[in-house]
Structures are given as structure tokens and as C-alpha cells.
Amino acid sequence: MNAIETRSLRKVYPAPAVKKKRGVPAPPAPPSGGIVAIDALDLAVAEGEFFGVLGPNGAGKTTLIGILTTRVRITAGEAVVAGANVTTQPADVRRRIGVVPQRPNPDRSLSVIENLVFHATYFGISRADAHRRGQELLERLGIADKMNAKVDQLSGGQQQRLMIARALSHDPRVVFLDEPTVGLDPQARLSLWEILRELHAQGRTIVMSTHYMEEADQLCGRLAIIDQGKLLALDTPAALKLKAPGDTLVEVTFDGDATVVADAVRAMEGVSNAEARGPLLRVFSKRGGALIPALIDAGEAHGRIVRDIHLSRPSLETLFISLTGRKLT
Fold it and tell me: Are residues 276 and 293 in the same domain?
């Protein structure tokens, strides 16, 4: 049985209203159809799977997590989580899931253990059982010594561990994490990775959104790459990397628009693709760094001066760039 299924899922936010100021020409009218955040998305996540949703800021990741956790209403389509429909059975969904938000949002007036007890009692767990389970979770997550501390006494990484403990306090079937390591230092991020691996090893279904390539590669069994609300690719990290262009990506930033340079570069030997985005020239080539002098010459021939050069070998990121034309930032 699948833990999560979406069928033709669509979310459209209303276009922002246009405000007209007296004596100033009216700005262009917004798109009549609104802002499409999720567009005809079909997904299936198996029980016990560690599933990643990878995409840049604004790709639709947070909206998707919001829909699956019943915080965002669907415009069209259907989503089923842990056997319950998010539209017709939202209370059942909430009982069966745990959510770790993008930014920690504990009750700062309560102690660490009180946050866990209060959360668990919302799900009908007795205070005695909630307290016992809270202690066990804090022990497992390595912050039992902070049990009676106020939230503001915790570091960023410790607060994120508290959010994971809170999400697990009612023993959910599916755990959602919305960019859980944003803002954490490298050491705290690696520590959180180990915690997530342990949770997955216990058989829990985990769904995590991220825009960190390494995080997705290291943790997830399968990855859905999305951009502008559309599913662009879905497979294991290893299989996705095999689909990446076999060429090196050479990015050259000029001091002006690179369109004329891209037009000239496409005809060069060994270039499989070249595109310009403002001053940025992206070139896929089997020649790799050997192509750089020719790219500099092409720029100078069109009056452009090089400001920066960057090379990337085939990877999840080069796959994403080849699919979307932009980076995961």
C-alpha cells in the first residue's frame, strides 16, 4: 500500500490585487488565471520510503507539503495520505502524520518537555504517557539534558531536534519535513541527517523537501524533481545522475548580455548545447575546461569581458539545470 498518492493535483493561488494610486498610471493587470503553484502532479510514495522533493525556492515544494499536511486547500485533483483523503478526511490525515516545519515554531512560554506533552495530549494521549514518551524521544534525539529548559535556551540545531520530537510524540505513520536543515551549521546538519536515517530505519515513511543537492543524494531513496509546480523527473538519486548530461557544464558570466555569445558558441566543436540568461552563458561540452579559452575569445569578439567562470561535472545539479535552465537556489 502506498503511504501517499496524488492524482492530477493542482493548486492555483489568486493573483494579487492591483492597487492604483491617484495620478499614477495603473500597473499591468495580473494574470487572470492566478498563480499556479502545483500543476497536474501525480505522485506515489510507498510505505516506509524516504522520499525527497527537490527543487529551487518557489518551485512548489512548500505548497505540496502544505497540501499533504492539510494546511493548503487543493484547487483540483486528489491527495490521499496514510489512507485518508486530505480534502474529505483532514482530521484523519492529521492524526496519522507528523510535521517538522521549515522554521521551528515551538511554544516559547513552555519548557522543552511541556511542548511535547501539550502536543501529544491534542491527540488523546494521557499526560503520563505523553511525558514518558517525551522523555524517551528527547533521550533518543540527544537533548534530554534540556528537558526542563525554555526553548530560547536551545541552539538552532537543538530546536530542530525538538521539532522532530514533537512531530513523533503521537507516533505518526508518515513524517513530513519541509526543508529541515535550512539555517543550520554544517555540524548540526550532519547530526540531523543521522537522526533522519535512524527514523527511516525504524520503518517510518519520511517525505522531505529540500533544495540541497547533497542532502537529497545522501538521504532519499527516491527523488521527485519539481519546478514551477511540475514534475520534471522521478527516480533514485543514482538513476537520476545517470540521466544527467554526460558533458561538463561550463558557466561564464560576462559584463553584458551573453545572447550573442551563445549564438556563436553553439557552432563550436564539442558543444552540445549553449544558452544565455542575461550575462550568464551556460555551455554543455565534452571538452570541459579546454573550451574556456575559446569561450573567452568568443566573448571578446562581441565586446564582452569575462567576470566569472565555473565548471560542474555531470551531477543532480547539472541534470536540474538541463531540465529547467536554472540552479537550485
Answer: yes
